[in-house]
Design goal:
The chain is 42% helix and 12% strand. By secondary structure, the chain is α/β, with parallel strands linked by helices. The strands form 5 sheets. A 6-stranded parallel beta sheet has the order 5-4-3-6-9-10, sandwiched between helices. A 6-stranded mixed beta sheet has the order 15-16-14-13-17-18, sandwiched between helices. Helix 13 packs parallel to helix 16 and helix 16 packs across helix 18.
Length: 530
Amino acid sequence: MKKLSLPLLADTVITRRKGLKMTQTELAKRTGMNRSMLSKLETQEYTPSIAQLQALAEVLCFEPTDLFIDEEDKPVTTTASTTEHSADETTSTTAEGTHQPGSAPYKIAVAGTGYVGLSLAVLLSQHNDVTAVDIVPEKVEKLNNYESPIRDEYIEKFLREAKKGTRKLSLKATTDAAEAYKEADFVIVAAPTNYDPKKNFFDCSAVESVIKLVMESAKDRAPEEDQPTIIIKSTIPVGYTRHIREKLGIDNILFSPEFLRESKALYDNLYPSRIIVGYDETSDYSREKAHIFAALLQQGAYKQNIETLFMGSTEAEATKLFVNTYLALRVSYFNELDTYAEIKGLNTAQIIKGVCLDPRVGDYYNNPSFGYGGYCLPKDTKQLLANYQDVPENLIEAIVQANRTRKDFIADRVLEIAGTYGNSESYSSDKERQQKDIIVGVYRLTMKANSDNFRQSSIQGVMKRIKAKGATVVIYEPTLENGSTFFGSKVVNNLKKFKNMCGCIIANRYDPALDDVKDKVYTRDIFRRD
């Protein structure tokens, strides 16, 4: 049975409130709570009502469901009012048949310091000697100064505490990959695998390059049993792990899918829904390494009794793609519900709440957007569709197409609001004269709130469609240099100037900074959360 974790709630409220530079008085005013209640909540002396919890979540932008854990799970106790975990307290009970990690720490190298790689590096460095490898010197320098190169609440928190000396992490970073791999017991590959539309497949060249470098770096080590165990965490096509093992003639490669959310990656590793490790089922060596690696993940987690599955590497690869395609299906479903409601003049929020009270549907992952995007869903759905080449299907293709349709609809609505061409309109000399006066502003390129990543964000697809109709697009994106351009659109990071020059502003996720120009903001962020 899941229960609200007061330590986790207190930690979340304190961290997010301070991150927003908000006093307790300001937060109390915005949530309608009594300030003394809020103070007691932050010291874990008060349990809020459901309505108060929802109000806090809306103002501080977090998911209330993230704070409910199984009763046997351990809370994160890292706020000023609580004590640090001891090593014994953070060691999870392993699943039946899983080997416990040895008493001596393992040497682990992690290739890539994005959300997947860095969250794993921090997680595992609690009990092991971890070296994070990246090709960007600036990222390496930041990590060696205990500064996170990416936005992730818990990664930033752990590194900040390690820098202060209040949390022990054995973590360093380097650009010398060969040196890091040479003595490693485990090498985790978290290299990017972008979808290649020309080949209709993931581009796994970066993953293969890491594997070959690991082999080259460790070639002077004795027999196979002493070679580094390579764990692929990058998302790859179904069958790739088996293919690369056969191609390179090695048996020390595993595949372990990740199920992480952007900007919440370390949290999701501390409280994983499940751990899956895919291995070569014909090899006892591969099986043993799979169990040891799963135990390392369990050891670093705060959650106990984690559901842990061992399966063939190909089944694990398929699991990853099917999970993300289902999530894309869910996003598309609620987006199409929203499209219908908007066209028919209906209240989207009321319909979604009515639908999601059915326990078979559930009240989660249902906030409309401009389409699914980000690191995983666009490429994973296309890759799964490619794997269906010789298999009958209708649904997977429809999910991919639904995302295009949603972006078409959003762009058409924006153009209509801005006063220029809609998708179905033909040439008009009057509209052509109006074009030069129409400026559409894009508020943030990021997919989610509190994020600095905009890779494959859905708003980019909308932006390209708007520009194709001749409207001028300007962008407010603080992570880009003011005055620079992004795919030909000027970046204007003076927020006041940006607001004044735009006739219409689009925002995939709404921000209170837009309150003073709310009348010209177009968003489908119905519930003000990711």
